[in-house]
Request: fold
Amino acid sequence: MTMEQQMLWQKTIPVRLDTDVLVAGGGPAGIAAAVAAARNGAKVFLVEGLSCLGGSGTSGMVSQLVGLTDGEHFMAGGIGAEMHQRLREMGGFRAYPYSGDILRTEIFKRFCDAYLLENGVSFLLVTRLIDVVREDGRVTAAILHGKSGIFAVTARQFIDCTGDGDLSAMAGAAFELGDENGNMQPGTLCSQWTGVDWSQADRRFQDEAMERAIADGFFTVPDHHFPGGYQNGETTMTLNAGHAHGLDGTDERSLTDAYITQRRRVVEYGEFYRKYLDGFSRIDLTATAPLMGVRESRRILGEYQMTERDFLERAVFADEIGRFAYAVDRHRNATDPEEYRRFEQQFQDLRYGPGESYGIPLRALLVKGLENVTVAGRCISTDCSMQASVRVMPGCFITGQAAGTAAALAVRKGVQLRHVPVREIQAALKDMGAYLPNFRPE
Ligand SMILES: Cc1cc2nc3c(=O)[nH]c(=O)nc-3n(C[C@H](O)[C@H](O)[C@H](O)COP(=O)(O)OP(=O)(O)OC[C@H]3O[C@@H](n4cnc5c(N)ncnc54)[C@H](O)[C@@H]3O)c2cc1C
Reply:
């Protein structure tokens, strides 16, 4: 590998805004964080790099909210429950007999716009966080890039909801990337299709058809792990198929390669549906997702790192800000059938019975070494197994809500994050409707 040359680049830029709380990233975690902070009295500004809010749930074309309950209780109580209810009222879900309700992406986008506006959160789309200013252990400003140029926003508290932990990493926080061998879960480029005759389609035959196609040598990459297609309209389908193995979502070169390769592979999956399954002979690809589905990238190191042991022990923490119950859904970074069997085994073994859950401690959101930065969503402080559970959208609603609440209370009290009494954060969360069965108000 050749050494990259270095150069110094300096520029005087305008400071466009001063706010209490800055949220970087407008995915499920960012939306919950921003609304929670605003409801707790903070002036909030959110920055989102893409053209809409919702993150993987919209731009990534992810199909459903999994892990909403433990079979007995609603896990994402508070903002998650409110979003779920409001989205349902707007027609944001399509009932699907083979799995949970399927998200309707365009409705989710409009809902997120309205939800932030009505909660008094100001935000910019198509604007990226490109750097931060750090002074000692504090971040003092976010450097943003939009169409009009580069500018700064100063804030008291920063919440990293970029999915990839960009803000924390820019501020010099420690993180982990992959397991002990550097393996991360593969990504997937989801897609939307039209022309399905759902009266003829039967999802039960999908896996068997996939095995036949692989045996026929149909695919350029024979991948046994096939989440598949879901009905999201009268004749439409959202497709979660094909894994980008070896993807590093923090490296634009790896992402570019994955977009090019996966766009080709999506077409192959369409041909597979036409040839091997009833009801799909007239399907047409309408769009591949503008955002690569990255399941795992940086896991920012917090004051506590949640581990598989916590999952096994159904951990209870004195500082828990929510509980979660979704199984460990760790896609493998390989295509061979043996690895797929390992995935299936783990997905079966690391799952709970009704009413069981694990706690998420506040410390997993407090970024080590930074006084005023919290992290929420899929990049919180976990090991790989725990990340593979808490990463799903309802988990991100829970951690987002807690990060927003903690940040707003720190601003209101004029103290450092770590000096806000945990019980006050928990009480505020409980008031909002969070599921905190182990918290007893005094
Ligand atoms: C293929 C696939 C299928 C999945 N299926 C499901 C499922 O069925 N159900 C489920 O609940 N979960 C599912 N998940 C998981 C879930 O979608 C994600 O883990 C979850 O959306 C993560 O939320 P987040 O808010 O942490 O990050 P994201 O959803 O990734 O949102 C992060 C946002 O931050 C923005 N951003 C990033 N960096 C910057 C920057 N530097 N500046 C400005 N903005 C930035 C991004 O544009 C994005 O909008 C799936 C994931 C994948 C990849």
Remarks:
- The longest helix spans residues 252-276.
- The chain is about 30% helix and 20% strand.
- Residues 191-288 form one domain.
